[in-house]
Amino acid sequence: MRKGLRLGVDLGGTLVKMALVDERGRILERVQVETVKNPRTLVKTLRLAAEKWLAFPILGTGIGVAGDVNPERGVVRFSPNLGWKNVKLADYFRRMKFPLPIRVDNDATVAAWGAYHVELAGHSNNLVVLTLGTGVGGGLVFDGRLYRGATGTAGEVGHIIVEAGGESCVCGSRGCLEAYLGGAALVRSARAAYKLKGRTVDGLDPISLEKRARAGDPVAKAVWQRASRVLGIALANLVNLLNPDTVLLTGGVSRGAPLFLPNALKIMNQRAFKTSARAVRVVVSQRPSDLGVAGAALLVE
Ligand SMILES: [Zn+2]
Known about the structure:
The chain has two domains: about 5-115 and about 290-295, Nucleotidyltransferase, domain 5 (2-Layer Sandwich), CATH 3.30.420.40; about 125-285, Nucleotidyltransferase, domain 5 (2-Layer Sandwich). The protein is about 40% helix and about 25% strand. The protein is built from ten helices and 13 strands. It has helices at about 40-50, 90-95, 105-120, 180, 185-195, 205-215, 220-240, 255-270, 275-280, 290-295, and strands at about 5-10, 15-20, 25-35, 60-65, 70, 75-80, 85, 100-105, 125-130, 135-140, 145, 245-250, 280-285. The strands form three sheets. The chain has a five-stranded mixed beta sheet with strand order 3-2-1-4-8, sandwiched between helices. The longest helix has 25 residues, at about 220-240. The protein is globular, with a radius of gyration of 19 Å. Zinc ion (ZN) binds near residues 169 and 171. Zinc ion binds near residues 159, 169, 171, 173 and 178.
């Protein structure tokens, strides 16, 4: 990675994190602004926030966005969180005179790139990253390079099908991993299970579900148990297909890993090829909040 500073932008559904990052992915300074859905207003706000940094020589700007991104053209084809369709995001940054070149990629791809360079620096060469948030995203780094596929859409681990006729998924398919392990799906299925028992529970989220499961609540335990089973199947598929040395879990739901990971690993070990299963370590990120901005900045090579 060329020596010098880059700007990294992690564009999430509620918050945008922006940082000044060095060639090793170290964050020197950071700011955070609330997401606004109008891309022009958003980029203008970011430009003002970045003003003080632009006196430095900066090698370029990298941006991670949740959604379907065309990395070659810097276009966000579709982002349900932001309500965007065919937004030429790189052009907005260019017009606002952000440091060139401008690189745009999917947020999970960017998190994988950040994990590869920063958290796992030198300890992984074939890496799968799963971002466990409201939805489930994925990013792939093989032989030290990002794998993007034919259209930049590779690594949609959340939409690996784990139950042929299973739960409906936001993508339009059924039985996707995200329909069980995504934060939204966990809450939805817990709510439905409580309702069956004639109970209404307010303020459910993955963290409270985790607390309930730890306290022995049978509904919460069953929801995590089901999530762990489908994750185990997804991991077996990933391990057989890709033979990674590391699978890194990041994002809010990954904090519940002590609840779901042991069983998922047991199932992975039962169902995957022995050689591949033995070679992989599945770990939980220790610095999840930095991977997005660092990885985005390092898109500028
Ligand atoms: Zn899906």
